[in-house]
Structure formats: structure tokens, C-alpha cells
Design goal:
globular, 6 strands, alpha/beta, 173 residues, Rossmann fold
Amino acid sequence: MGQSRSCIGPQVILVGLDSAGKSTLLARLLTGQVVETSPTIGFNVGTLVLDKKTSLTVWDVGGQSSMRPNWKFYLDDCKALVFVVDSSDRGRMAEAQKALKKVLSEEKLRRVPLMVLANKKDLPNSLTIREVSTQLNLHSYSDRLWEIQACSALKGLGLQQAFLSVHKLIKKS
């Protein structure tokens, strides 16, 4: 019976602007299904099993501007930050860059690795990884382990690989 603790993996916090696709992404990872989501008030949480020995507890925290000041309350045992950005929404990249910079300035995240997921890559005019990286000013985070990957929560593309990479980042840090 003492096995239940091993199911609870390191905590990963999923943040990003509203409508970036965080809840769709988490639901797709956990169920394999596309689920109708509505704006997250508060949070969703689930355990993502990567393989027999590896799981992550993923917290999806609401991204509306009124919710962003609450992000810091979810960071206590955070082992990796996953920042989800809508790579098709060029008009909100500056806002995303500000939100990312603000959350990364939290003391609790000082040594925590970052995974940026450029979501919605299935949409025709989505930015490339390089463009997203430049717009978010990722090169300025030279003191932090970080990675960026493209994905599509809707199509399920790149999600499993991204979270396997998150697990590797956690082990490295």
C-alpha cells in the first residue's frame, strides 16, 4: 500500500496568458482528448504519468490579467515552470514577455528551469520557435536552464516530448 507516494511527481506549474491553451494542453495530456474548456478561475491540477517510474504533478493556473498576481502562490514546491504562449497571437507577445519576466523574477523560481511551449503551431500564421524566443527575450535568461518547443494542444503534437524534456530539465537542475 505504501506505493501511492511514488505517483506524485515533481510539481510543474503551467502559466501563460489567458487563451494560450494551458487547460486544453493539460486535458489533452491527461486524457488524450480535446476537451471544451472555459477560462480557468483558480487552477486545474493533474498527475501526468510519463512512464512506469516517472510522473509530474501539473498545475494549470488561470492566466487572465486579474489572476496573474496569484501565480506566486503556486510556486512553493515548483520544480519547473512551463510558460505556454499562443504562437499565433502576435499582438500579445509583448504582454506575454512582460508576464514571463514578472513571474521569473519571483525568488521561489530562482533556480527553477523554464520550458516555453509555443502552442497552436497548427495554425497557419503561427510564429516560429526563433521568433517566439526573440519576442519573449529568452536569451536574457542566461542564468537559467530553459528550452522552447513548439506544440499543438488541439492536435496533441509535441506535448509528450515537451514534458519528457521538462522532466530532464528538472533532473539537470
